Structures are given as C-alpha cells and as structure tokens.
C-alpha cells in the first residue's frame, strides 16, 4: 500500500505525462550523424583556419555594411569537409531526402550540391538568384519556396531554400541546413538585396510549431568515423542529455564575432592564462578548438607539445599528456573545462588525419592570427562534443551544460 502522498505524486506525474497539449508544442528533436572524411595531410588544421579566416572576413564585411563577396576575397584552396554533422531533411511533397550539413556559422538552407533538386507540387521558384561563399566552399543558384520536413511534426510549408546550380567544396553532402543568426543571410539574394531570408528556426517559431526561438545541440565524442550520435532540438532543450544546469552567456557586442554565435570568454590552462577575456564564437563547422596565435603559443609552451608535421596538430609525449591540466573556458555563464582527455584527438582515429597510431595529438590549434581582432577563438566540435549547447535567438544568448561525456575518457 502506497502512502497517500506518494500515490498522489505518482498520479500527478502520470497525468502530466499523458497531457497531449504539452506534447504538441514540445521541443522537437532531429537525429544527426557525424561523418569523418579526412584525406590529405594538414587538412584538419588548414580547413579550420581557412574557415576562421572566411568567417572573420565575412563578419567584418557585414559590420562595414559591405557584402562579403565584394569586400573579401579568400585566396585559399577549397578543402574537403573534415568532420561534419549531417541531418536528413525532406524537401517537397512527396519529399526527396537530402543529407545536409548542420552549420551554426551560416544561415541559408540549400540543396543540390550532390543529389539534384526534385520539383514537386509544393515547389515554387522565386525571381531571386542566391549565392553564398564559405571558408571551405561556395554555392550559387536559384531561390525557391518549398515544403521542408525536418522530422515528423516538424514541417515548414513555405521555406525559402537555395537550389544550387554550381557548388564547390561539398563532397558527400547535398547542401547546408543553416542554423546561424538570420543576419548572415543579408544580401545573399539578388535582385532582392538588402533583405534577409528567414531561417528554418525563424519559420518554425513564427508558425507556432515551436514555442521558443531556440536550438539545443547534443554531440557525443566518438572513436569511430561515422556515427549517429547527435541530436538537434528545436524550441527547447533535451534535458535527458544534460547532467547540470545550463549556464547562459549573453551574445557578445564585439565585431566581427557578434555577426555569429559570439561570446566573451577567457581561457586558462591550470592557473596559467592562455587568453584574456576576449570575443570569439561557438561553431559546429569548426572541428578543433582554435585560439589566437599568441594564446595558442602560451598553450603550446605550457603543455610542452610540438607541432606535428604530418597532421599540423600539437603532439604530446605520454608524460606531457599525463601532466596536462584542465583547459578552462571562463564565461559569464560559468567555467567549462576540457579535461586532459578532452584535449586530445581520439587516438583510434589517428590514421584518419594522417597521424601515426599510438601518438597523442591535441585538439587545440592556432587560429592563425593574434588576438585583438574581435574573433579570437572558436569553440568548435572538440568543445561541443563535451558540452550541450543552446543557441537562443529570442534572448540573445548561448548556453552550455555538462553532459555524461564532459569528463569521459573516450579519447
Ligand atoms: C571524401 O573525400 C574524398 C576526397 O575529396 C571525396 O572524393 C569523397 O567523395 C569523400 N567521401 C565522402 C563520403 O564524403
Ligand atoms: C564583451 O567584451 C567587450 C570588450 O571588452 C565589452 O565591450 C562587452 O561589454 C562585453 N560583453 C558583452 C556581452 O559583449
Ligand atoms: C617539420 O618541418 C619543418 C619545416 O619543413 C622542418 O624544419 C622540421 O625539421 C620538421 N620536423 C620534423 C620533426 O620532422
């Protein structure tokens, strides 16, 4: 026989769980899978540095009121995608399924890089051309309105999407699902310049499909190349993925980081300051953790690591690895620490990046420019695989929370 209070609690819990109204507008979750495709030496670091350079140029151009393509020419080789997270997204009715890169550093959604766009009764061509340049590629084509199905119950009837006629740098994926701030779409259409393109998240919120203009992302560290281990939640967070409360950090006002998911942060290795408080960004499209050159050099000497010629990454001896201290990311929302194990590349994947089995490579790399340029670090995948992240448009903030994998020794 249950005590009455416990029974009441149980009944209450049951009735809440069975309430269909809550289910209707609950956050909706989409599984995402990780893919690894590294083919040439130095690819990983160079890929990330190229992206960093492009993001900075794009942000700076935007802040100056110029369009990216006019203001900046990136004379860098177009690299293959290194580590990517991909979601299956349906377009049209009946829907054709496309594998799209999840990108917090851009905001246009488009298809057609590999699999051709299939027009159906829901497709409607607009009079606009569209064109976007990324650090690791570009695309141009025509803007359409079409029905986009992200998951069951997560359908957008008239999403503006790009349909590529040419694209560069996208192997093995069909396009991008852009989940960055909407301002990044400004001037990507022509002749409709001066306007933005509502993002998938904007439309879900506007249509009342989700009740908060916010995205939660869960990645898990993995020691295999391809893995279905991530999820993207629209309209809230998936509390089953968190072990702590979410620490929120206001979006930075510093340019050009403020064009993206930018925050202020300082970085410490043990008690050594690696980077004083400065602005940078949180970015799913960057594989490593990038720190401005002067800060990276401090990390390099504090750890004793040397640059490995084959991979471009820092390489540690086993005794240097044993001596690593926590790398702390100090923010207004709390301090988030990468354990020693979280500071190294998964050793099972050394060969995939041109490394040698048994070596120990670090995931902190050089941003390529000194601090003081308004975008002095990038918290990429290597960070996001250890913390749940929340991108909150409505309240202009980014949040992080610990997960069961924050201190896991999976590498
Ligand atoms: C991996 O990269 C190679 C080299 O660029 C490319 O040819 C291949 O299509 C890519 N594979 C996948 C699955 O992305
Ligand atoms: C971030 O740092 C800049 C530069 O120090 C400062 O002006 C700003 O107030 C800080 N906070 C936010 C939320 O941008
Ligand atoms: C790495 O490359 C540099 C420049 O090519 C060379 O000077 C150095 O000796 C190389 N280091 C190793 C360990 O091979």
Automatic annotation (TrEMBL):
InterPro entries with a match to the protein in the record: Aspartic_peptidase_A1, Aspartic_peptidase_AS, Pepsin-like_dom, PEPTIDASE_A1, Peptidase_aspartic_dom_sf
Single GO molecular function: aspartic-type endopeptidase activity
Statement: the UniProt record of this protein carries the keyword Signal: yes
Active site: 103, 283
Peptidase A1 domain boundaries: 85-401
One Pfam family cited in the UniProt record for this chain: Asp
TM region(s), chain numbering: none
Leader peptide range in chain numbering: 1-18
Coiled-coil intervals, chain numbering: none
GO biological process, one term: proteolysis
Superkingdom of source: Eukaryota
UniProt keyword annotations, A-Z: Aspartyl protease, Hydrolase, Protease, Signal
Family stated for the protein in its record: Belongs to the peptidase A1 family.
Name of the molecule in the record: Peptidase A1 domain-containing protein
């Amino acid at each position: 026989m249950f005590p009455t209070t416990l029974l009441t609690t149980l009944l209450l819990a049951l009735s809440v769980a069975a309430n269909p109204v809550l289910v209707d507008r609950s956050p909706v979750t989409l599984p995402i899978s990780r893919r690894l495709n590294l083919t040439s030496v130095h690819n990983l670091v160079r890929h990330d540095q190229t992206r960093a350079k492009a993001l900075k140029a794009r942000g700076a151009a935007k802040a100056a009121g110029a369009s990216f393509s006019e203001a900046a020419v990136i004379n860098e080789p177009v690299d293959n995608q290194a580590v990517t997270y991909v979601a299956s997204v349906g377009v049209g009715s009946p829907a054709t399924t496309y594998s799209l890169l999840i990108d917090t550093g851009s905001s246009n959604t488009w298809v057609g890089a590999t699999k051709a766009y299939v027009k159906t009764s829901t497709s409607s061509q607009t009079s606009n051309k569209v064109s976007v340049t990324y650090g690791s590629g570009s695309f141009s084509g025509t803007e359409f309105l079409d029905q986009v199905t992200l998951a069951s119950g997560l359908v957008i009837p008239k999403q503006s999407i790009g349909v590529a006629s040419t694209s560069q740098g996208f192997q093995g994926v069909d396009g991008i699902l852009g989940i960055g701030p909407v301002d990044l779409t400004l001037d990507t259409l022509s002749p409709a310049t001066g306007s933005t393109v509502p993002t998938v998240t904007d439309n879900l919120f506007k249509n009342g499909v989700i009740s908060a203009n916010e995205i939660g992302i869960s990645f898990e560290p993995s020691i295999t190349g391809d893995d279905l281990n991530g999820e993207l939640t629209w309209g809230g967070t998936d509390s089953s993925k968190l072990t702590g409360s979410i620490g929120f950090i206001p979006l930075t006002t510093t340019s050009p980081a403020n064009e993206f998911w930018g925050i202020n942060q300082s970085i410490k290795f043990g008690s050594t300051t690696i980077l004083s408080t400065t602005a940078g960004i949180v970015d799913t499209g960057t594989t490593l953790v990038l720190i401005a050159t002067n800060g990276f050099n401090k990390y390099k000497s504090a750890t004793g690591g040397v640059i490995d010629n084959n991979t471009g990454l820092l390489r540690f001896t086993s005794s240097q690895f044993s001596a690593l201290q926590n790398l702390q990311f100090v923010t207004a929302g709390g301090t988030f620490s990468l354990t020693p194990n979280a500071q190294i590349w998964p050793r099972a994947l050394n060969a995939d990046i041109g490394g040698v089995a048994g070596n120990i490579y670090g995931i902190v790399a050089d941003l390529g420019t000194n601090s003081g340029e308004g975008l002095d670090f990038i918290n990429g995948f290597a960070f996001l695989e250890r913390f749940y992240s929340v991108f909150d448009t409505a309240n202009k903030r980014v949040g992080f929370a610990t997960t069961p994998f924050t201190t896991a020794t999976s590498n």
